[in-house]
Amino acid sequence: MATTATVGNKSLWAGGVAPLKASYGKLMMWFFLLSDAFTFSGLLIAYAFIRWSAPAYKGNPDDFVFSTEYWPIPEKVYDAFPGVHGQEWPLVFVGLMTFILILSSVTMVLAVEAGQRMDKKGVVKWMLWTIIGGIAFLSCQAWEWAHFISGSGVATIGDVFLNGRWVEDYEIMGAGLSFNQYGPPAFAALFFFITGFHGFHVFSGVVINIITFFNAANGMYEKRGHYEMIEKVGLYWHFVDLVWVFVFTFFYLI
Amino acid sequence: MEQTSNVVVQPVDKNKIRGIWKIAGILAIITAIEYVFAFTMDAGLLRNVIFVGLTILKAFYIVSEFMHLGHEVKGLIYSVILPMIFIVWLIVALVELEGGAVKSSRGIVDYNPAGSEQVDDSH
């Protein structure tokens, strides 16, 4: 930095300068995240397009029943909570998941902050909390998927394509990729695809967090003289949180 | 080569930590407001617009503060934000216009329980 300042007439594009004032690794992480955001945008566009062109339920929400003929009201689908039976707790569990992920994002910011102060103990502590948050989120998602797949309540009667032929008035329980008890086949397929793709990102993030956690604990970054790796991993982790904010809105609220 | 012993740990900046938790509090409050709308307001276009608006507000705080983009150079901010603005344009165009057009051209109609009273008529 100091050497480039002395060369005043140097061309901006001749190399040796950093116009964006970010290191190579951080910059590439930003552009990777941008391309990843395009991927998620594609998925959310597909979801919203299919949903927008599907029949909607226009009746009183209190009288709502599941049918394969129209798109379900999300809070009627996601109303279960572990250990609670026979009661409707709409959106409470997904609220807990959101809360966990936001908290783990906060602990990641604290890890980055500790790294900037060269505080190894702080980095290790906050990275550990971030990993715990990530694993807690994944566990919640595993429960939610299991509940979504096995289904609950009354079976939905609908025509399904099963083993190569159409079956009329089939009792649909739970959800699979080809049909589900909650709504049109695309409803569950999109749910699996998009929350699954996000969950896989969380899983990768947890793995990367664990690697950097051990590196930090072994003093690798202290020897290196900076904790920039924590900042780069932090960017990825916040992105995962960011995507969840959108998935939460489009899947569970709207 | 062994320099681990003379690493100086800088003291904690209390204001910075407080700032981080403040952003976390804002995110929690926005989510709480979303829940209030989800339970007190009927579904419709207005509610969806409110949800998307609050989501973008949350995204702004995460990207700007947690990911530190708000404190980067202008060039970096724009190279990330501008492509996303075009994506939002595409989303609005595809979902709002194309989705609606496909729905009407395919003759897909919404399900209205009032028009399906044949169940009640049977008895």
TrEMBL record, chain A:
GO terms for cellular component: plasma membrane. Its main location: membrane. It is found in: Cell membrane. The chain crosses the membrane at residues 30-50, 91-114, 126-146, 186-214, 235-253. It is a multi-pass membrane protein. Residues 1-254 form the Heme-copper oxidase subunit III family profile domain. GO terms for molecular function: cytochrome-c oxidase activity. The keyword ATP-binding does not apply. Coiled coil: none annotated. Gene3D superfamilies: Cytochrome c oxidase, subunit III, four-helix bundle (1.20.120.80). The keyword Ribosomal protein does not apply. InterPro entries: Cyt_c/ubiquinol_Oxase_su3, Cyt_c_oxidase-like_su3, Cyt_c_oxidase_su3-like_sf, Cyt_c_oxidase_su3_a-hlx. Pfam families: COX3. Belongs to the cytochrome c oxidase subunit 3 family. PANTHER family: CYTOCHROME BO(3) UBIQUINOL OXIDASE SUBUNIT 3, CYTOCHROME C OXIDASE SUBUNIT III. This is Cytochrome oxidase subunit III. The lineage of its organism: Bacteria, Pseudomonadati, Bacteroidota, Cytophagia, Cytophagales.
Automatic annotation (TrEMBL), chain B:
It is found in: Cell membrane. InterPro entries: Cyt_c_oxidase_su4_prok (IPR005171). It is a multi-pass membrane protein. One of its GO terms (cellular component) is plasma membrane. Pfam families: COX4_pro. The chain crosses the membrane at residues 20-38, 45-64, 76-97. Keywords: Cell membrane, Membrane, Transmembrane, Transmembrane helix. It comes from the Bacteria. This is Cytochrome C oxidase subunit IV. It comes from Roseivirga ehrenbergii (strain DSM 102268 / JCM 13514 / KCTC 12282 / NCIMB 14502 / KMM 6017).
